[in-house]
Amino acid sequence: MSTSEKSHNHNNDEPNNTESPIVTNSQVTDEQLINWIKSRRSIGNLSIPAPTESQIKAAIDCAVTAPDHKKLQPWRFIVTQGNARHELGRAFLVAAEARAAQEGDTLSEKDRQKTYNMPLRAPVIITVVTQMQAHKKVPPFEQMLSAGAAVQNLILALKAQGFSTVWRTGLLCNEPAVKAYFDVSADDYVTAFVYTGTSTCDMPTRKPIDIEPLTRFEQ
After folding, report:
1. Which of 4, 38, 39, 198 has a Cα at 20 to 30 A from 110?
2. Cα 21–chain centre separation
3. SS3 for 127?
């Protein structure tokens, strides 16, 4: 079964917010749009309301407009919510125990509980995985970058609908137990766990980043 086909038959145990469509404002200036993009922040403390199914699909519809050489669609999206988050927590725990055993160690009960609870840090998790295609003109690294661009589009589309996000990966994301949970092949990757929901905290101000040492113009 492909990652796009896999689903967990659980009811969402947390209520969703009232749906609101994305409204396009033709009066937004270029400067306003740039400042809006620059206002994006990673927020780790997330709760309900969560995006509804149609809002998630709207965000994924934006994600798949990412640059995609030869239109290979080398990405898939798995939405985990409700009780399915506990199943993901068990997969994380199996992965963590296996990793610890390889290192000649064992997990403490505190670490076991912390690992199991990781998916409970948000009401919805959208996992983005690669499904790379063999193509002589599109090497794997291009397809991986396309997946990263899809994640950024996804995050911005969720922000446009009023939701906060944090892009997580971590040491366990490509452990065998986690890849098996998402039906990810040995040659593919889990590129992002996009935790999403609502945040009530004050949005932190980003310190200006000096782009001069990061940029070079040639002519």
Report:
1. 198
2. 21
3. strand
Sign of CA dihedral 104, 172, 14, 201: positive
Q: What is the 8-class DSSP label of residue 42? A: B
Cβ neighbours of 76 (radius 10 Å): 21
CA atoms within 13 A on the CB side of 90: 5
- The tokens of 28 are what? 């937004």
Using the predicted structure, report yes or no on whether residue 190 has a pLDDT greater than 60. yes
Residue where the block lists tokens 């949970």: 181
Q: Is 165 exposed, middle or buried (0-12, 13-18, 19+ CB in 10 A)?
A: buried
Encoded tokens for 186: 């040995």
Q: CA torsion angle for 140, 145, 146, 148 (degrees, to 10)?
A: 130
Determine the 3-state secondary structure of 77 from DSSP. strand
pLDDT of residue 24: 52
Per-residue pLDDT tens for 123-137? 999 999 999 999 999
**Cβ atoms of 88 and 56 closer than 8 Å:** no
Q: What is the pLDDT of residue 202?
A: 83
Please give the structure tokens belonging to residue 41.
């922040």
Q: Which residue has the tokens 């403490």?
A: 108
